[in-house]
């Protein structure tokens, strides 16, 4: 019997979408400083190089083949390109829903470099993206933004299929058995999960599941479930939903149970957190650090800025943490 496909990204990207916005397409030469504003990230598609990447406290990286560079968080860095021909890049800002708490952003390392040729199935999308980025067709910005979103999904698939992430959620989603339990938690957080039920979903014994989960993700199944539920509760709070309804949807039997778990996880009550987050978002702003590059380095169709632990659970219905 052929096992049905488990979509490891559906629940993640539904609850925590990522918006992509192109802000540069063209040549770079010389040295360019970069730093994404706020909590956003960057994706750079290097069409031709070479490009040297310098980050404080890290060995320099040299990109000699067409590659994808992904920075899910603000990471100070310099791009060093030749002064004659320079390098050709298309760059996008990544806005992760939920900011720094977005589970996809949190699961990724500070820097990812993947040769474009190694991303399975991406050749057609990349070809269209480069054609649009270096052309002048109407609607190109809107189309390129959507194509960057497709490329992001393809690189996440690539990282899971090649087990390119060590530890954390994406490592768990790469595991042939743990992935089943994780998808079940992501899709049905309101369910009264027990360790036995999760082990059965993974097709493992209780002990093997608990140990493998902890070794791979760095926390217990119950701890992971609480974090996921609180992340969902935070999203719902920002949407203006009532705490009572949120408690039911994320698997807590009452407002009080959700409030206790929320404060244990965040250090603030749901009301305090929503007020603090609203104030933070109202004060957010800024522009792409280092952009636009110096005029003599701007050659191309579009140069410059575009638009701008181990955990315990506190729930009436949480997975066992042993």
Q: In summary, what is this structure?
A:
The chain has about 325 residues and is α+β, with helices and mostly antiparallel strands. The protein has helices spanning about 10-15, 105, 125-135, 140-160, 170-175, 180-185, 195-200, 205-215, 220-240, 245-250, 255-265, 270-285, and strands spanning about 20-30, 30-35, 40-50, 50-55, 60-65, 65-70, 75-80, 85-95, 110-115, 300.
Q: Report low-confidence residues grouped into runs of 5 or more.
A: 286-322
Taken in chain order, the helices and strands follow as HEEEEEEEEHEHHHHHHHHHHE
Silhouette: globular
Share of residues in helices:
40-55%
The largest pleated sheet is described as: 6 strands, antiparallel
| Secondary structure category | alpha+beta
Lateral arrangement of strands in the main beta sheet: 9-6-3-8-1-10
Report the end-to-end length measured between terminal Cα atoms. 33 Å
Number-wise, the strands total: 10
Mind telling me the C-alpha Rg? 21 Å
| Average residue-wise pLDDT | 85
- What proportion of the residues form beta strands (DSSP E)? 15-25%
> How many DSSP helices?
12
């Amino acid at each position: 019997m052929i096992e049905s496909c488990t979509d490891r990204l559906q629940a993640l990207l539904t609850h925590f979408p990522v918006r992509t916005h192109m802000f540069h397409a063209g040549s770079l030469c010389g040295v360019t400083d970069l730093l994404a504003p706020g909590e956003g990230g960057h994706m750079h598609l290097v069409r031709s190089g070479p490009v040297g990447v310098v980050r404080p406290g890290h060995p320099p990286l040299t990109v000699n083949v067409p590659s994808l560079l992904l920075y899910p968080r603000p990471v100070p860095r310099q791009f060093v390109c030749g002064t004659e021909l320079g390098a050709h890049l298309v760059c996008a800002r990544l806005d992760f829903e939920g900011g720094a708490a977005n589970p996809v952003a949190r699961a990724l390392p500070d820097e990812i470099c993947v040769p474009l040729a190694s991303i399975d199935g991406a050749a057609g999308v990349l070809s269209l993206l480069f054609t649009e980025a270096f052309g002048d067709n109407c609607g190109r910005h809107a189309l390129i933004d959507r194509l960057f979103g497709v490329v992001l999904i393809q690189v996440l698939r690539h990282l899971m299929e090649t087990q390119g992430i060590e530890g954390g959620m994406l490592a768990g989603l790469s595991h042939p058995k743990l992935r089943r339990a994780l998808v079940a938690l992501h899709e049905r957080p309101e369910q009264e999960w027990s360790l036995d039920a999760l082990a059965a979903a993974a097709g493992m014994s209780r002990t093997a599941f608990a140990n493998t989960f902890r070794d791979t993700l760095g926390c217990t199944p119950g701890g992971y479930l609480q974090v996921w539920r609180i992340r969902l509760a935070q999203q719902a709070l920002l949407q203006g939903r009532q705490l009572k309804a949120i408690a039911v949807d994320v698997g807590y039997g009452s407002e009080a149970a959700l409030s206790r778990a929320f404060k244990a996880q965040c250090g603030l009550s749901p009301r305090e957190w929503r007020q603090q987050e609203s104030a933070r978002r109202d004060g957010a702003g800024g522009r792409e650090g280092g952009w636009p590059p110096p005029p003599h380095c701007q050659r191309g169709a579009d140069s410059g800025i575009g638009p701008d632990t181990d955990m315990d659970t506190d729930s009436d219905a949480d997975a066992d943490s042993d």
